[in-house]
Amino acid sequence: MNQSLSYKIRLKTSVLGLIALSLVGTLLLAGLANASAAYANPTNPDLELASNEIAEIEILQYKIFRTREGYAALVGGSLTEDTPLPTLFEVQIPAGSEVIWFGEISGGPRDEDRVFPEPFTVRTEGAYDIYTAAINDHVFQIEFLLIEDPFEALGGGEHVYFLSYTPLRDARALRLAAYLPRNSNVKDPSFQHIGFAPDSEDPLYGISFFDVVGGQNYQADLRYGPSPEIARQGQANLAEGILVTIGIVVACALGASVIFYLSKNRKARAKAELEYVSGDDHDEEDDE
């Protein structure tokens, strides 16, 4: 009887142990599943992320350029060098903007740069669309058409670009820039000549801000005109044009004076002849 009771106790203990081990295994699997979900990629489920946190963007650049569709802008960003890859990042642009291109910048030929798969992961908060993507490199770029016209002709060959961007989060630096026509003259020393367009000789001018605060709008007016040589040439042409115009006006005035003088003389002669003829007739009547 005691042996049977002891056997039953050992059997119950073994069953309880198996149940406990099963529960522990289930909890471990659930924990692994949760960990895997935490590192899941919402934009590309096949890509395993190194971190489930949104990466910090160190440097931002906002740049205006022309396209066949009109004025466009790009926002480029670089992550800190110690950011583990692949990782998630976020960038915002004006709400409702049409995206032209969104991908990674590898530093090589543009055709080799990876493009983020569509449909993009995007949400709208206030006046901005916020894009989220998983990146394999440290540099990204999003290009989009501008809704509002950023350009104005001031007259006299002078023009201005209105540069404006609001970063989503803090960054170490932000550069606002635009491509200008060749031989443009920028007088504001705050703007630096950065380089040239990849497919043309259009110069790129920009201004930099440091210790950028997320949510704060940064603006700058990039004014430019023709080069001094072209401006001087234009002034010479303007002076020549003024002289030619003055000459034409003077010539017209002289011509009008001559015509008026000749017309006046013709009228005087005609009047004299008329008076002379009338005088002869009158004399003849007197004689009769």
Outline the secondary-structure elements.
Blueprint: H1 2-38, E1 57-67, E2 70-79, E3 87-94, E4 99-104, E5 121-125, E6 128-135, E7 139-145, E8 151-155, E9 158-165, E10 171-179, E11 184-185, E12 192-196, E13 203-212, E14 218-226, H2 228-287
Parallel strand pairs: 1-10
Antiparallel strand pairs: 1-2, 2-7, 3-6, 4-7, 5-6, 8-9, 9-14, 10-13, 11-14, 12-13
Strand order of the largest sheet: 4-7-2-1-10-13-12
Largest sheet: 7 strands, mixed
Could you tell me the CATH topology label of the largest domain.
Answer: Immunoglobulin-like
Order of helices and strands: HEEEEEEEEEEEEEEH
Question: Distance between termini?
Answer: 188 Å
* Uncertain regions spanning at least 5 consecutive residues: 5-9, 11-40, 231-239, 267-288
What is the total tally of β strands? 14
How many distinct folded domains? 3
Structural class from helices and strands?
alpha+beta
**What number is the mean pLDDT?**
77
Which CATH class of the largest domain? Mainly Beta
Into which percent range does the helicity of residues fall?
A: 25-40%
Strand content bin:
35-45%
| Overall form | elongated
